[in-house]
Specification:
248 residues
């Protein structure tokens, strides 16, 4: 994991910049990715708005490698996450994936959830034990974690979405983002959604996120569940790809 000083500072304004502004005003070639600078990221990000779901999902998979490789937060991760959050309301997010009949919006939310987990209290806290100063003010991970209230506001409207997959993906992303102290006031409301995950979801990683959130926030939880041993990259989607794999 990387803990250098980031050039991608969190925006001072409370709202999420329009995705067009993020795309056009970010100095992508000055930002680090897993494989050099981010000069190719605008092309990849633009493909998320293509009408072909295969192109969209492939682009998200590429982003996972470029700015999330080995569960690491890079300099380019923050603006990429802001772009992804910014297109959640775009018509292209409603493209249905063949064979699954699930809107791409659910996949975008899952991507945000997994990326947020890589900077979560659980993962960042473990890393801080081995790399003191990892979470110091101004580091890459600290700057990304500062974005959590902004990303949360983009995710929250989909907590009541009419599509089950979108709704569950939004809940998982929101639960992880709500670790930020500024979002504490939302936790009792989110606890209701977390319980719904435990009541209805068969997705083990998502159930684990819901249980850990309830436990961390002091809520009663059901009896113990048997989860497999937790490797460092065990998040909402343990293989780092989640539902980005074929079939498309």
């Amino acid at each position: 994991m990387n803990h250098n000083i980031s050039k991608a500072r969190a925006p001072h304004e409370a709202g999420l910049p329009p995705y067009q502004v993020v795309l056009e005003e970010t100095e992508w070639d000055s930002l680090q990715t897993a494989f050099g600078n981010g000069e190719d990221l605008p092309k990849v990000l633009s493909r998320l708005l293509e009408p072909d779901p295969k192109v969209q999902v492939t682009a998200l998979s590429e982003l996972g490698e470029l700015v999330g490789h080995q569960n690491t937060i890079y300099e380019a991760t923050a603006p990429v996450a802001m772009y992804v959050a910014g297109i959640l309301t775009h018509p292209a997010a409603m493209t249905l994936r063949p064979y699954r009949n699930v809107p791409i919006r659910a996949t975008l939310l899952n991507w945000l959830a997994f990326t947020a987990y890589d900077a979560s209290d659980e993962i960042a806290g473990r890393t801080e034990q081995y790399f003191p100063g990892f979470l110091a003010h101004g580091t890459i991970v600290a700057a990304f974690r500062d974005l959590r209230p902004i990303l949360f506001r983009a995710v929250a409207p989909f907590l009541q979405d009419g599509h089950e997959d979108v709704r569950e993906a939004a809940v998982i992303a929101a639960l992880i983002l709500a670790e930020h102290p500024a979002l504490a006031e939302h936790r009792d409301h989110l606890a209701v959604h977390a319980r719904r995950i435990l009541d209805t979801s068969s997705d083990t990683p998502n159930r684990r996120v819901a249980r850990k959130a309830l436990e961390a926030w002091g809520h009663d939880i059901p009896g113990p569940e048997r989860f497999r041993e937790e490797p460092w990259d065990w998040g909402p989607h343990s293989d780092g790809r989640g539902d980005l794999e074929p079939p498309f």
